[in-house]
Write a structure and sequence with these properties.
Layout: H1 5-19, E1 21-23, H2 24-31, H3 35-47, E2 52-54, E3 57-59, E4 78-83, H4 89-103, E5 107-112, H5 120-129, E6 134-137, H6 146-150, E7 161-164, E8 178-182, H7 184-197, E9 204-207, H8 212-228, H9 245-260, E10 266-270, H10 272-284, E11 294-298, E12 311-314, H11 317-336, E13 371-374, E14 377-379, H12 386-393
Parallel strand pairs: 4-5, 4-6, 6-7, 7-8, 8-13, 9-10, 10-11, 11-12
Antiparallel strand pairs: 1-3, 2-3, 12-14
Helix pairs in contact: 1-3, 2-3, 4-11, 7-8
InterPro entries: DeoR_HTH, LacI/GalR-like_sensor, Peripla_BP_I, Tscrpt_reg_HTH_DeoR_CS, WH-like_DNA-bd_sf, WH_DNA-bd_sf
Biased composition (Gly residues): 335-349
Protein name: Substrate-binding domain-containing protein
Amino acid sequence: MRESAVQRHDRLLTLVREHGTARVTDLAARLGVSPVTVRRDVETLTRKGLVERAHGSVSWPRPRTGEAGAGGLGARPVLGLLAPSATYYFAEVIHGAHEAAARAGARLVLRISDYRPEGDRTRAEGLLAAGAEGLLIAPGWRDRADPAEHGGWLAGLPVPAVLLERTADPGGPLAALDRVCSDHAHGVLLALRHLAGQGHAAPVLVARADSPTALAVRTGYDEALRALGLERPHPVIDAPAGRDPEGFERGVQALWTAVTAGRVTAALVHNDVDAIQLVQRLAELGIRVPGELALVAYDDEVAALADTPLTAVAPPKREVGRLATELLLERLRGRAGGGASGGPGTGPGDGREGVAGDGTGGRAEPAPRRHLALLPRLRVRASCGAAEARAARG
């Protein structure tokens, strides 16, 4: 298979980082490409600030005299961000991370996995080769087996790392990693409580099962039913619009049957795109939202743009990116000052990096690892009937 430019750039950066300075001709020989190709690559990497170029040689960037980094980290610390996508849900997460990095004088380097977890480790190594001193990682997991199958490498990272919108099994190798996540169980509870307050019996859940968010919504649905004392009105319906047209139509028909039989009057649908297409297809079958079916979407990316604006649960995506970046910078400051690092030889968050008052010379106790759960909000619009109810009362 032919090597991509990105892969070649990673190898070039690794060589320059290892040697400090390298001649273009030597790099060409090591990479197995022409000097012209290396010069072109170096131009690209220089524009991005990843290397410095001078008189036929390439150097790793040096700190500029007098330039203050974040909390004593040196000149402009580099943070790596691995995300499964740069669009839809994760666009806001990335924006939040970028804003926090910019405020701290750090540079953020992004890689996208396209939900292919088998390549996450290689992409993370590429970020390290590009100079990342700490990593923000949202693995491209799609199902429940992926963390065990494709996530073990995270526990051995040589730099501090923070998980984004991902959790880990208690007691597992990733449980001690810092992480910042939306509390999707709380978001589901908000939706079900709101629909119950509108006079509906337990809503049916329409949700795919091919992402960590979807799986968290499914788990949160069962927890919310128990908390509210409601019985499940119908098995969870999978209606994956776009990915599986036949499966989507089966889901639509299952929901249509439940509504026309009078068993269901409300639904929570993950995600916005599926919800919008579901509403459109139900209208073709004579089911109106919110007339015959009150509906709440989950994600709130494009829910407000539907013909009938959709009430939606809005996870705090931008805040997840911002707080995760601030947490990672805090870890890097602690590492630079000799505190908790999660770096080589310690294992991220293993809790053994020195304990105050243990007779070891008074080493400072490291800051505890953190699992931050941010609460989603419910944004009420027309699809749940609340707007009509308010108009009738007014």
